[in-house]
Amino acid sequence: MSRQYTLAEGQPQPSNSSSVQLRNGHGGGHVLLQDTQLIETLAHFSRERIPERVVHAKAAGAYGYFEATHDVSDLTDASFLNTIGKKTKVLLRVSTVGPERGSADTIRDVHGWGMKLYTDEGNLDWVFNNTAVFFIRDPIKFPSVNRAHKRHPRTNMPDADMFWDFHVGNPEGTHQLLHLFSDRGTPASIRHLNAYSGHTYTFTKSDGSFRYIKVHIKTRQGVKNLTAAEATRLAGTDPDHLVRDLFDAIEAKNYPQWDIFVQVLEPEQAEKFNINIFDMTKVWPHADVPLRPIGRLTLDTNPRNYFADIEQAAFSPSNMVPGWGPSADPMLQARMFAYPDAARYRLGVNYQQLPTNKAVVPVYVPTQRDGFMTFGDNYGDDPNYVNSMLRPTTFKKNVVQAATTLSEKHEKWTLEMANAFTTTVTPEDYVQATALWHVLGREEGHQDHLVENLADSIAGVTHAGLLQEVYKVFANVDKQLSARIQAAVEAKKKGQADKVNAIAGSSGTDKHAMHTK
Ligand code: NDP
């Protein structure tokens, strides 16, 4: 059936490619205010952009499905996991973090893994990263770490002094720096990266029991990374390399897959565990807490429209389903506020009604209504207030409260108020970074690449005192690592100085030549 062009309110539109003008007979013309299509075309164009995400702006995305592959009914009641073979529709959005929406996606960065599972008990969002840890463990530093990675307030350029000043002052993130500056900071494609919850979550059951979990997502394509040189070249020749690779693979029916695992700790184990399980700068060593498979992810459908499907998608760790709960990880708790807050700012207060965010199950929340861009019937004449559980409203029948999903046995800890555990950094905080340095030593070239990649960045530091502090931080990881970084930085700085001198020398000759002409 053919369609006809209309104005935005449905009136037939005979000509959308020429404006209505008063012509003067010599090729000129005065456009008319009555040309509604012209006015709306121009006005809509200047309003096309919505606020860019302050982090995670550049991304690729696709649809697919999660398939439960193992029985985990001893751990959780989550419906999407309760039958082997059960499939749940998924939207995945993978992004760099710091750079802007139009930036090259092979730039070294952590990669965000935003995934919405449209389950039969509402949406579950996994807002993970391609690294198992993070730079900070106190959420008050979240804006600061991101600003230090972005642009300097004066020069509007990324700034090595600012970056390293932050990290020297917050060395609990050294473990994550090793991940970032290893080759995993420049993945060869989205199909070839792993992802991790980083945070500790809980699996809960209706009998009131719960376990702590961390999620691991492992690529079935194998981990593959770019060297720094390849990533830099691609940033110039194909700045949308990651977006293109994923799109092309799915168009060619080469569907990428990941296996999904959890690490599980019983609450009693957690209390005795030698690592703070709420500290996002730490992993749970595999030897202590093995991986248990739960499912498989397959991406098989490209978005039909990037803006509607991917740009308007909003992910939040607060989107949880029965059987899946939060933990006392302070970073998780803060993100559960910050992510929906960012979506309300970026998309508007009714962003959950947008098709890409809309749950596939019926939604009934009549106490959340009105506001900009309310779609649908806005709950008609249903009460917009709550009564108590003891005496439901007289005016709405056949609506019941869901069974409670709160786990009564959940986390009985003794609490005292304090200015957090992040104020001190102890030798313990470097143990896992040292372990990673040794993991990199298992494969030829990986330690060399880490040293080179770090030195590339550190060589941009201009403040001599700061440089010494950077070396000291890495000496806490491994003395040899620090010495190698220092040697590489000094070589790069000498190379830079020689280059400047050569340019100055040659321009001096030119000036002289001009002068003597
Ligand atoms: P293991 O020796 O059991 O595991 C090391 C893990 O490191 C591997 O399983 C792999 O995880 C990951 N890895 C391998 N090569 C690289 C690389 N080039 N860059 C980054 N990660 C790599 O040791 P532990 O569990 O005791 O952990 C030792 C260190 O390994 C940790 O300090 C941490 O930095 C790193 N690591 C640990 C993870 C964990 O959850 N325990 C997860 C990821 C890294 P994978 O297959 O997931 O890529």
Automatic annotation (TrEMBL):
UniProtKB keywords: Heme, Hydrogen peroxide, Iron, Metal-binding, Oxidoreductase, Peroxidase
One Pfam family from the record: Catalase-rel
Record region (Disordered): 1-26, 496-517
Biased composition (Polar residues): 12-22
Coiled coil: none
InterPro entries named in the record: Catalase, Catalase_AS, Catalase_clade1/3, Catalase_core, Catalase_immune_responsive, Catalase_sf
PROSITE patterns associated with the record: CATALASE_2, CATALASE_3
Catalase core domain boundaries: 6-393
Top-level taxon in the UniProt lineage: Eukaryota
UniProt keyword Lipid biosynthesis present: no
Enzyme class: oxidoreductase
GO molecular function, one term: catalase activity
UniProt-listed Enzyme Commission number(s): 1.11.1.6
Family per record: Belongs to the catalase family.
Name assigned to this protein: Catalase A
Organism: Sporothrix bragantina
Gene that specifies this protein: CAT1_2
